[in-house]
Amino acid sequence: MDVVLNINRFNPEVDREPYFQKYMVxxxxxxxxxxxxxxAWRQDPGLSFRRSCRSAICGSCAVCINGVPGLACQTLIRxxxxxxxxxxxxxxxRFRQVKDLVVDLEPFFESLKAVVPWLVTRxxxxxxxxxxxxxxxxxxxxxILCGVCDAAMDVPGKVKPAALVKGLRMALxxxxxxxxxxxxxxxxxxxxxxxxxxxxxxxxPKGIKG
Length: 210
Ligand code: SF4
Ligand code: FES
Hints:
This protein is α+β, with helices and mostly antiparallel strands. It has 2 domains: 2-103, Ubiquitin-like (UB roll); 106-203, Alpha-helical ferredoxin (Fumarate Reductase Iron-sulfur Protein, Chain B, domain 2), CATH 1.10.1060. The protein contains 8 helices and 7 strands, in the order ββαββαβββαααααα. The strands form 2 sheets. The protein has a 5-stranded mixed beta sheet. The protein has a two-stranded antiparallel ribbon with strand order 6-7. A hairpin with a 2-residue loop joins strand 3 (62-65) and strand 4. The site of FE2/S2 (inorganic) cluster has 12 residues, from loops.
């Protein structure tokens, strides 16, 4: 099938403002959006976007697909092309556009620092973890730091969604000496945290449960 990728383009060296450019590519419905983007890129090697693993592991292909942030390599053409065969791609909202679909990830990684994203190991840690505690960590440890949640969810305050996931994951870890103090560090009102935990699984490409 032929699909039209309607891609938001911007090169700060030559463009005053972003604009949309259309690329017609031939793909099959079971192929991924990233496959289609790579075909467009072969037509126009000046088109910029990030990708690496092509298997929803590295998090680098996050873009806004028909208005919804997601991973291009995890999105099937048949699920987004609709009857019109047209797919609109934009850079992640709430991120600064650097060039075309590439965004500035610096503030995203900065925001992670606020939650001390590593274990501060308890001195009395025995080296064992009971299976129940370990099960609670299974979902949040699958975060691939793609930034989709930061782009999709409006969480007030300085600590943004991906950092919240990291902070909650650390707070749940029985080996961590900061534990509940991490929740105070994040300065997120409990009612906002509850809404965040409720909405995250539907937003996150990995279906992470807080
Ligand atoms: S929580 Fe999900 S959406 Fe957010 S950064 Fe991690 S994997 Fe991406
Ligand atoms: S290319 Fe790695 S997550 Fe899509």
